[in-house]
Amino acid sequence: MKSKPQISIRLSLGMAFAITVLLTSGFIGFSTFYATRSFIRDGIRQRLENITALAIANLDTQAHARIRNRTDESSEPYQRIKRSLQQIRAVSRDIRFVYTYRIDANGKITFVVDAEDANSPDVSHVGDDFPETSPLARTIYLR
After folding, report:
1. CB pairs under 8 A, 24+ apart, for 135-138?
2. Does pTM surpass 0.70?
3. pLDDT digit string (tens) for 76-119?
4. How far from chain centre, in Å, is Cα 29?
5. Which of 30, 67, 123, 143 could form a disulfide bond with 116, CB atoms 3.0-4.6 angstroms apart?
6. From CA 115, how far away is CA 7, in angstroms rounded?
7. Three-class SS of residue 129?
8. Who's near 109: CB < 8 A, 6+ residues apart?
9. How far apart are CA 80 and CA 143, in angstroms?
């Protein structure tokens, strides 16, 4: 009769220890990844909120409300707001697009002032649709 090969206790304990170390390392790695990702996102969100708060403080809301169509792009208030947005973009090198938008009573979101140069292919004009808005964002904006 053949005897079954026995796994030594030393090998069993070694394998159990290795598996425990691998599982613990994996758990710590995933936990660190998610905590770091959350920390970075919160930092970016806070920075954007601060920049937005500073931009709003410098924005002439009455002049902004009077900008209604593309012909207003040559007006002094439009140009003043555009310069202000361009200054924000110049100071914040990580931010690519700086613009304002408006939401009408029907929930349609349109651009008002865009900091892009007039010759840029990415420029948006007064009244251009803001199509990237998700249904969730529209709901939040309309509150």
Report:
1. 138/107, 138/109
2. no
3. 999 999 999 998 888 887 888 899 988 887 778 889 999 998 88
4. 25
5. 123
6. 71
7. strand
8. 101, 102, 103, 129, 130, 133, 138, 141
9. 29
